[in-house]
Amino acid sequence: MADRKNLKMVISYDGSGYSGWQRLGGTQKKKSIQSCIETVLQEVTKLDNLKIAGSGRTDAGVHAKGQVANFHVPSSFLTDKFTLESWKENCNYKLPEDIRILSLEEVENNFHSRYSAIKKTYVYYLDTRETPCVFSRKYSLWVGNKLDVDAMKECSSLFLGEHDFRGFSSEKDMEKDTIRRIYNITFKREKHLLAISITGDGFLYNMVRILVGTLLEVGRGERTLEQVRFALDNPKRKYAGVTVSSCGLFLYKVDYK
């Protein structure tokens, strides 16, 4: 692929009005983030079948502060007048106001936004006000102010390390490898918001939302640490917590070697 260049994008988006990241076939009531970006890139580059690969599939309603994608273009497309910066500016001008390309750079040809990733960090925001705030309802889950955060922190330590997270996923493919490693889980107060940050080597379908749902049940006194241990040791979906709403979830960062 010496005659082609590999370009890496970092993207931020508000996922409220979209079907999720992934482009899907058939008729959809809502567009995907991927299809919106591809349409604009094809318009800017005049390449009809330009496709981008994302670091992961965020669900409908999930947001991103640091989604990563890559795509290939002929080397001849980059000139002194047609630079990466001008591409980025033109794309951002044409994209909907809830999607922005934060950076665009050339990378090695063997770089892949998904397969080259070594860590991903998601952040889930909980609104702990006594009364829910109408202005943050799309970006946080209202849970009220009666949470035992210390119990949630203690529970989060059970998830650290390598486990079979099959029970903490909505995956339908039971043949899929469901072993994942969680490196870190932190809790941070941001005024009335409680931000739960989870970093791992990868995540299963709905895994972060189910982990947060389980932590919430512990914080509300609805689930014990022993029950969480049992759910980890017996990886069936029925033993883990609820799947919380997508509104409070952000793909925060993707790390590479």
Summarize the structure.
With 257 residues, the protein is α+β, with helices and mostly antiparallel strands. Helix content is 21%, strand content 30%.
Report on this model:
- The mean pLDDT is 92.
- The protein has 5 helices and 10 strands; from the N terminus they run E-H-E-E-H-E-E-E-H-E-E-E-H-H-E.
- Strands 1, 2, 3, 4, 5, 6, 7, 8, 9 and 10 form a 10-stranded mixed sheet that branches.
- Helix 1 packs across helix 2 (84-94) and helix 3 (149-156) crosses helix 4 (207-219).
- It has helices at residues 33-45, 84-94, 149-156, 207-219, 225-233, and strands spanning 4-13, 53-54, 63-74, 99-107, 117-127, 141-142, 161-164, 179-190, 193-200, 249-256.
- A hairpin with a 2-residue loop joins strand 8 (179-190) and strand 9 (193-200).
What descriptive keywords fit this protein?
alpha+beta, single chain, 257 residues
End-to-end separation in angstroms reads 22 Å
Q: Provide mean pLDDT, rounded.
A: 92
What low-confidence regions span 5 or more consecutive residues with pLDDT below 50?
Answer: none
- Derived from helix and strand composition plus strand pairing, the structural class reads alpha+beta
Provide the β-strand percentage band: 25-35%
Radius of gyration: 20 Å
Give the helices and strands as they follow along the chain.
EHEEHEEEHEEEHHE
Instruction: Bin the helical content.
Output: 10-25%
What's the β-strand tally?
A: 10
Blueprint of the fold:
Elements: E1 4-13, H1 33-45, E2 53-54, E3 63-74, H2 84-94, E4 99-107, E5 117-127, E6 141-142, H3 149-156, E7 161-164, E8 179-190, E9 193-200, H4 207-219, H5 225-233, E10 249-256
Parallel strand pairs: 3-10, 5-6
Antiparallel strand pairs: 1-3, 1-4, 2-3, 5-9, 5-10, 7-8, 8-9
Helix pairs in contact: 1-2, 3-4
